Amino acid sequence: MNSSSSRVRLLQCFAFCLPAAIIIFIFFFVPMVRSLQLSFTDWDGISLTSQWVGLDNFRTVISHRSFNQIVRNTIYLMVIYIPLLNVFALFIAIQIYEVKNLGNLYKTVFFLPNMLSMTVVGFIWKLIFSFHNGIINKFFRTVGLNALANDWLGDPSLVLPSMTMTIIWYALGYYVLIYLSGLYNIPVELYEATEVEGASSRQKFVNVTIPMLAPAITINIILSTIGLITLFDLPFVLTGGGPGYNSQTIALQIYYLGFVTLQPKLALALAVILGIFAILIIIVLMKILRKREENIL
Amino acid sequence: MKISAQKQLHKLKILLVNHGILILFACLFLIPIWYTIISAFKLDRFIFTQPLSINAASFTVSNIVRAFRIMNYPRMFFNSMMILGISCLMLIIFGSMAAYGIAMARHKFFERMYGFFIILITLPFQLAMVPLISMLKNMNLINTFLGTSLVYGGFYMSFVIFLYTGFIRSIPSELEDAARVDGCGLLKMYIYIYFPLLKTITGVILILRGVAIWNDLLIPLITITRTANATLPLRLMSFVGSYYTSWGLVFGGTLLVSLPILCIFLLLQRFFVKGIMSGAIKQ
Amino acid sequence: MKKILMILLVLMMSAGLLTAAGARGAADAETVTLSVALMSLDIPEETQAFLDAFTKAYPHIRIDYVDVGASIEEYLQPRAAAGLLPDFFSINAGSFAAQLADRGMIADLSDTETARKTLPSVKPQFTSPGGKLYGIAGGLASSLIYYNVDLFNELNVKPAENWEEFLELCETIKRAGHTPIIITPADGTISNTAFSHGFANNVVRNNPDYVERIWDGSLNFNTPEFADVYRMVKVLYDRGYTQPGTLSTEYLMGNALFLQGQAAMHFAGTWLAGSLLEADFTTDVFMAPWNRKGEIKIPVVATETGWGVAEGPNKKEAIMLLDWLNGPGYTMYQNPRANIPHLMEVEGEVILKPQIQRFLDDLAAYELAAGLWFEYLPSEIMPLTYKFYQEMLIGDITPEEIAREFDLAVKQAVK
After folding, report:
1. Per the CB < 8 Å rule, is A260 touching C74?
2. Same domain, C251 and C156
3. Does C172 touch chain A (CB under 8 A)?
4. In which domain, by residue range, is C381 found?
5. Mutation for C interface: A50, A260, A263, most C CBs within 10 A
6. I need a labelling partner for C164 at 20 to 30 A (CA). Which of A244, B147, B149, C380 fits?
């Protein structure tokens, strides 16, 4: 192939990318860059002009008396939620894979919560967790386990686990489907080969299933991390970040600064911090997961 | 003889263990759903006193009827459908084209662009939100289906390109060589060979992003200022957030908003699983 | 099959685009379309009927109405930033709206017919530092203590007159095995109740010019009196006078609990009179006794969410709607809520609960009154106000520390 025809080809390829690139550029990238600029100004969210104030907004956001707790909550949720969600989703996916019959029904059941909007999920679970009228406490009281009837969303030590449970309930189906498709993609011959060698089911799981699922695991971990980092509507309705700041996350704090305290310049500064945080986490995860995938293959 | 006995045993194990586990968790998962559905048909004052059951005294359809009327359901349904349709069309056509371009080019510049798109996936939408509003206004796109859809396009396109690219790369390059021998240009190859192959992953994207767009609140909240142009979740939110919430109304509205997307899911379901399998997996 | 679906989709979309374009074309004709954003989900049908009646009276004005849910500020803020305020909207007294008014985005209503009829006492709350009347109060409001009369009779107790009596009352009720009072610290509503009354009795008492002093930064919040605004709730909580699960109880659940008879008293707004006074048991109200023994009470008298008009091409028509609402349409919109009138005279008959009427009559005896938190605190401070209650109740912070932090935050905000 000569160089001019390859240039033509590249130009054609570029033309294919153009519509998408334009949409992304105008409707996401440009406003984002504009936000980045505004986060260095004293913009009040209403006027058209603003003064450059350097890193002031970032300093204000970081020096918030609960900033450490907010970051800690975000990391806590990540550390608890992401492994729990993925292990549980994989577990359910394997069960569905093995039963064959009724698979579609189970899939639908686990995907049902996804059909609700997060605001509604927050609202429903707030009622479910309610101390007096929630069905969880009603259940415990009915079976005589009064000691287990807790103030699920009001107790600082229970609120994050309760929130984690709610998010898992909401998100699980999505990840089950991705794992399940990964499982369907494993050639049956691989299992048969190990069976001939007399491998136990545990060995099959460790030596065949997990390595073959590596790409699905990568996708799911990354998707769930991004999803969690940017999640705000569900916690907002469920707990509003309370009690105190015990369930406040960075994304929730951005929402508060932007729409409750009406300090958009601070919201933007924190959003920039969150964006950098997200990119770093994803790069690290990609590195780890890619390396693991390569080791396996 | 022995083998069949083993098979029987295996079947029994599946029946007891796997189905047992699944049914247990499925029931746990269904309790909140059940709670939502029956509360939609219950008079307000019974929602707490008999949370999981319903009888003739507590039954009512007035929640559904009232929610239907207050939400102006037919109009909002149409709006939501239009936004969903335009956004998905845009994401699928332009997204697959871009992924195709990236995958075919095999060039450093395109790799960089791809990396840039992946970074964009991780960024929270809130970051673009405020300047976006004034931009849309200047472009006269506020309160239009196209404007709202373009915002979804900008925000979700990177994710769609990410999935499509992974899929196209997993297609053996022999296919491309063969097509080239036949004298197929890039465009022809896209239309007649690649796009039909993308059917399955397209199903994946329709579900993953379709559900998200249908239920989304944040974007219509800023791109739509007139009720006549509002979407279903936007109307539902005013129930949830109100100081005077009637619980039954929220549940009734929830049911009405979720039903259409459930139907779409059931239609696309088989499509979806096949799709993920060959698509997302081969990164 | 798929092709047909595709064609249908394309048809649907082009139809949609056409109708959208058509709608815009029609709006350009002589009729004016007013965009109206109201917080009125409690009375959706009545609001629609009210607006329909208005369009009937003024056939050339069409109404595009949206209900904004719980937070009008959250709804208006991004729209104000984009210059897309609705023509007519619900608005709360407070710094957010005042800011918009002084930038010329919200119209000054002082020359309107409605403003002339409005009680002078509810105008200052809606006046911006620049002197603009940016809203008309939607009624008078306060928060008070609703109580279960049947239970009070059974226990042979009476409403309290001051804080010390109130604690005794709670103790008696608790001894008898009932929950004395419901408070709602899980969302901002505790600021309407305990905070506003605590502030009135502890701070406003000695600082009648508190609004000006907050704004010029000279009011000191770092005082034992202000710490008491928080400590009083801590006392109730620590002694077990509040409902179990206090920390997760928000507005809606608090109301539900009281209506279920789960507590003897409930601290809530007058705007709830419609539902709270219609429980299965007899209910009545009394003024929150947040005053010490020997002191007279400082009542909280504030404004309901009111109405504002955007500065824009449809200002004239929006003011017509305002005047109609406060004239012939008053009873249609205000009576279903049993709002306390903000007008010197009302066209038609006002319907008030007798309990609320009695409370109003009592109010006349007090010389000094205070507003609700959102009428005087800068918007940056608002979430702090109730978050501090939560942090205090879980033991993360003491009332003294709150006073110190609050002082810093307010000074920072007004700077």
Report:
1. yes
2. yes
3. no
4. 143-300+358-414
5. A260
6. A244
What does the pLDDT look like over A42-97, one tens digit per residue? 887 777 678 888 899 999 899 888 899 999 999 999 999 999 999 999 999 999 88
DSSP designation for C205: G
Q: Which tops the pLDDT comparison, A131 or B49?
A: A131
The pTM assigned to this predicted structure is: 0.86
Query: What is the predicted ipTM?
Result: 0.85
Q: What is the pLDDT of residue A166?
A: 96
Query: What is the full DSSP assignment across C149-187?
Result: HHHHHHHT----SSHHHHHHHHHHHHHTTSEEEE--TTS
CATH code matching the domain that covers B71-278, chosen among 3.90.230.10, 3.40.50.1950, 1.10.3720.10, 3.40.50.360: 1.10.3720.10
**B252-279, pLDDT tens digit by residue?**
999 999 999 888 888 777 665 544 444 4
* Element holding A31 (H helix, E strand): helix A30-38
Q: Please give the class, per CATH, of domain A68-296.
A: mainly alpha
Would you tell me the crossing angle of helices C95-102 and C72-81 to the nearest 10 degrees? 30
Which of B127, B135, B206 would best serve as a mutation to test chain A binding (most A beta carbons within 10 A)? B127
Q: How far apart are CA C107 and CA C321, in angstroms?
A: 14
Residue C321, in any domain of the structure: yes
CA distance C169 to C149: 14
Express each pLDDT in C160-202 by its tens digit: 999 999 999 999 999 999 999 999 999 888 999 999 999 999 9
In whole angstroms, give the CA distance from residue B150 to residue B156. Answer: 10
Tell me the nearest-neighbour CA distance from B82 into chain C, angstroms: 6
Give residue B245's pLDDT band: very low, low, confident or very high (50, 70, 90).
Answer: low
- Reply yes or no on whether the pLDDT at B53 is more than 70: yes
Contacts of A155 in chain C (CB under 8 A): 247
CATH of the domain at C53: 3.40.190.10
Structure tokens at B276: 């993920």
Q: Do B83 and B231 contact (CB within 8 A), yes or no?
A: yes
Name B206's Cβ contacts closer than 8 Å, sequence gap at least 6: B88, B92, B268
Q: What is the pLDDT of residues B65-80, one digit of tens each?
A: 988 988 889 999 999 9
* C67: contact with B, CB 8 A cutoff: yes
- C87 inside domain: yes
